[in-house]
Structure formats: structure tokens, C-alpha cells
């Protein structure tokens, strides 16, 4: 079993600390993630332990969007 990478944080402009992960690393926590190189309106739900996906232009840094709450608006595989 691969070791999940350590949590990484960045300080945003409003002094909050925000979780980040790069493409190809393991997702540190369930949630909606926004790509550094993408529009702010396209969050992606990623499960903890899953590999972080590429952005629209390939490898990118992903930031946890803590303003999104709850499950994704669409059904995920295995959900009925």
C-alpha cells in the first residue's frame, strides 16, 4: 500500500489556511477541489486516497474548496 502524502497547506489572501495537493499525489481528504489553472466555477469531488487528476492543461496544483459542502450534485459510481 502506498503511503498517503503529508498534508500541504497554503495561506490564502484572507489569512485562512487552505489544503492543497498536486496532480498525481494521493488526495489527503474528501471534498471539492479546484484546479489552480481552471475556472473558479469547476470544482471536482475527489475521495481521500484517490489520485489527484490532471487539470485542463495537464499537471496542476489543486486547492480544497471549503465553501462547498455536502455530497456531489451528481451520482457517483456505486451510488443508487
Structure notes:
It is a single chain. Helices cover 0% and strands 28% of the residues. The protein is mainly β. It has one domain (8-64). A five-stranded antiparallel sheet has the order 1-2-5-3-4, with no helix packed on it. Strand 3 (31-35) and strand 4 form a beta hairpin. 14% of the residues are buried.
Short structural summary:
By secondary structure, the protein is an all-beta fold. Helices cover 0% and strands 28% of the residues.
Radius of gyration (CA) equals: 13 Å
Mean pLDDT: 75
End-to-end CA span: 29 Å
How many discrete structural domains? 1
Secondary structure elements and their pairing?
Layout: E1 8-11, E2 17-22, E3 31-35, E4 44-46, E5 61-64
Antiparallel strand pairs: 1-2, 2-5, 3-4, 3-5
State the main characteristics.
five-stranded antiparallel beta sheet, 80 residues, 0% helix, single chain, mainly beta
Amino acid at each position: 500500500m502506498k503511503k498517503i502524502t503529508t498534508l500541504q497547506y497554503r495561506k490564502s489572501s484572507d489569512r485562512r489556511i487552505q489544503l492543497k495537493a498536486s496532480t498525481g499525489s494521493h488526495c489527503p481528504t474528501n471534498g471539492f477541489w479546484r484546479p489552480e489553472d481552471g475556472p473558479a466555477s469547476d470544482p471536482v469531488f475527489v475521495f481521500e486516497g484517490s489520485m489527484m487528476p490532471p487539470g485542463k492543461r495537464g499537471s496542476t496544483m489543486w486547492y480544497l474548496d471549503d465553501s462547498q459542502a455536502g455530497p456531489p450534485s451528481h451520482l457517483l459510481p456505486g451510488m443508487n
